[in-house]
Design brief:
Largest sheet of chain B: 6 strands, parallel
Helix content of chain A: 10-25%
Radius of gyration of chain B: 22 Å
Radius of gyration of chain A: 15 Å
Helix content of chain B: 40-55%
Strand content of chain B: 5-15%
Order of helices and strands of chain B: EHEHEHEHEHEHHHHH
Distance between the termini of chain A: 40 Å
Oligomer: heterodimer
Shape of chain B: elongated
Strand order of the largest sheet of chain B: 2-1-3-4-5-6
Number of strands of chain B: 6
Number of strands of chain A: 4
Distance between the termini of chain B: 59 Å
Largest sheet of chain A: 4 strands, antiparallel
Number of helices of chain A: 2
């Protein structure tokens, strides 16, 4: 990602937010117009396959980007309360 | 019987005159001074060391709650009895937190005011019935759910006027995640927009006013 996007910084942030977990991967690279032909979220970057797998888990995949503004990919999946992924651990 | 020494603090001369006239009818009361501002109330308390200060809340040059806090800290033997027209929760809480011994409203009939002053002088808490009701119902209310560190961080940036895109760039996360944090903060604060969220968070002391640069 760093190489292709010409980014100087990449950060991966995992946030637990009341029943869901979000994985944000943000870079400060070249960015792109998500609707542009061949580089949209459904083509060219291998995102179609990722989206299908995330949606199979009941989650969402989104891409936020603009030319010159870096790119952020965010994957959100539900984490049932009290389930194995709940950071608070105990059932309520 | 030694007389109760009373200081009147109210910026309206008519109110002070009325109180002075009312209290003059009670042989055990002595009005030792009148203050028209919070600053004057503190100064006269220092000089006269009254038993009770009847304190208005809305006054120029230091409001009543601030003056109450100063008197409670410096002259703990002096009791402050708030006498005001305001019965908003925030006013009541501020005054009680500042150390007021009692909180009465200006529509209190004199036959209730006199015993309240005597009780305050003994250090007993005296609250107008509506004020007591509000305090108790507030305590009975659902416990406020604490905000996460990240939610507080996001709200602090909102208070500085940052857009969601600015906040996302500052925290180096997605705008979608910023929005989710904000929605959770709104739900916990019982509000539905960012302005109200900032106001409530400031009122509850969850965030502080951004420093001017």
């Amino acid at each position: 990602m760093t190489r292709h996007a010409n980014a100087g910084r990449v950060a991966v942030t995992l946030s637990y937010m009341d029943g869901e977990a979000a994985l944000d991967v943000r870079d400060d690279g070249a960015g792109f117009a998500p609707t542009a032909d061949g580089h949209g979220p459904n083509g060219g970057l291998g995102l179609r396959g990722m989206r299908e797998r995330v949606e199979a888990l009941g989650g969402r995949l989104a891409v936020e980007s603009a030319p010159g503004r870096g790119t952020t990919i965010v994957v959100t999946v539900p984490v049932p309360r009290g389930g194995p992924g709940d950071p608070e651990g105990v059932p309520r | 019987m030694s007389r109760l020494r009373i200081l009147l603090a109210d910026d309206h001369p008519v109110v002070r005159d009325g109180l002075r006239g009312m209290l003059a009818g009670e042989p055990d009361f002595e009005v030792v001074g009148e203050a028209a501002s919070g600053v004057e109330a503190v100064r006269l308390t220092e000089r006269e060391r009254p038993d009770v200060v009847l304190m208005d809340l809305q006054m120029p040059e230091m409001d009543g709650a601030t003056a109450t806090a100063e008197i409670a800290a410096r002259f703990p033997e002096t009791r402050v009895l708030v006498l005001t027209t305001y019965d908003a929760d925030a006013d009541i809480l501020r005054a009680v937190e500042a150390g007021a011994t009692g909180y009465l409203l200006k529509d209190t009939p004199r036959e209730r005011l006199y015993p309240a002053i005597r009780a305050a002088a003994r250090g007993e808490t005296v609250l107008a019935p509506t004020v007591a009701t509000r305090l108790v119902s507030r305590m009975r209310g659902p416990a406020e759910e604490a905000l996460t560190g990240r939610e507080v961080e996001v709200l602090e940036l909102v208070a500085r006027g940052s857009s969601n895109a600015d906040i996302a760039a500052t925290l180096f996360i997605s705008e979608a995640t910023v929005k989710t944090h904000l929605l959770h903060a709104f739900a916990k604060l019982g509000v539905d927009d960012r302005t109200a969220a900032v106001v409530v968070a400031l009122e509850r002391g969850i965030i502080a006013l951004p420093r001017r640069r």
